[in-house]
Design brief:
Elements (H helix, E strand, L loop, with lengths): L2 H4 L22 E2 L11 H10 L13 H11 L12 E4 L1 H13 L5 E6 L4 H8 L3 E6 L17 E5 L11 H10 L3 E5 L20 E6 L12 E4 L2 H10 L7 H12 L1 H23 L4 E3 L6 E6 L2 H13 L2 E2 L11 E5 L3 H18 L1
Parallel strand pairs: 1-11, 3-4, 3-5, 5-6, 6-7
Antiparallel strand pairs: 2-8, 7-8, 9-10, 10-12
Helix pairs in contact: 2-8, 3-8, 4-5, 9-11, 10-11
The protein binds pyridoxal-5'-phosphate (PLP).
Amino acid sequence: MELNKLIRENLRKYSAFETSEQLTDADWVKLHTNENPFPPIPEVLNDIKKAINESVRLYPDPTAFELRKEILNVLLRDKETLTNRNSVFIGNGSDEILDVIFKVFIDPGDEVIVFYPSYSLYKIIATLYNAKINEIQLNEDFSIPDEVYSVKGKLMFINSPNDPNGKSFGNATILKICGNFPGIVIVDETYADFSTQTCLPLLKKVKNLIVYRSFSKGFSLASLRIGYALAAAEIIKEMNRVKLPYNTNYLAQVAALSSIKHSKKIFENNKKILEERERLSEELNKYDGISVLPSDSNFIFIKFEDKSKTLKFVWDLKELKILVRHFSKPGLYNYIRVTVSTEKDNDVFINAFRTIANKYL
Ligand SMILES: Cc1ncc(COP(=O)(O)O)c(C=O)c1O
């Protein structure tokens, strides 16, 4: 058997998504994968524990009926967005939603618009589906260039707030894009729980928009894999037709429902992350030779004036058992992305940074 001849042709040149190191040793300070530093609150953990009983023998609700209801009635109540339960799709993490969107819309050769830099998975999945990729370079300040208003294609992916720089794109820009783009605009709001901005209200104004969000970051449920998308009911209907029958598991649905029930308390806890984001930014902005970009997310993006110093920081931090994210990619060599963590971990980072800065800055 020649496996190489059996697998799909485009897989022969396909580079899969590289997941970051998942170190479980407690002595590592993990500031590289943008996880929430706080565990799920005890109320949510208790609800998950209570749900671990003989009923795991049964298949979960394939429609996640309760969860869709509570997302609209409680979680998004104040967001001035769609209210029809048939406008909500539940996915196995927001990453699955991305895959489902490709399954619905993309035939080989169809054009997909992505931005650079942004979350790399859009381009990777586009390659997997044999789409034609039009990658548009963001402006130097990470804003969207005007050329976007004249591009054609089937799908366009916008990450807001954008990974890796951390800033949201304004709704005026997104609305104008939707008005000009002939295909579907998808806004990935995985980090929006840390931002004051959301484009959810735009769903009432335009029909060619899908907004998706996650329970991974704002709700500390990354491991359970659950996220949701909102769009016109006719789009969600197609997404439901192609998803795997039992795509989200029972415990994840229970955890998400419990998180919604206790969302006030969870958002209150998350305020500490926002305060820490400001503290970290202020501390680091005191150094000459680096600057911290404004962020609406649970991470910050640090720019080094001297590119050659960037990796020295990354390596020295790793020696001190602190992991941060560096992208060895054009235009990004002189940046590091740092997840905002607990006060204690952020102090460890700030102190280590000071020691290294004494050597290099
Ligand atoms: C921009 C962006 N979208 C989606 C995801 C994945 O989210 P989920 O855990 O909901 O699949 C990530 C994960 O880091 C991300 O950075």
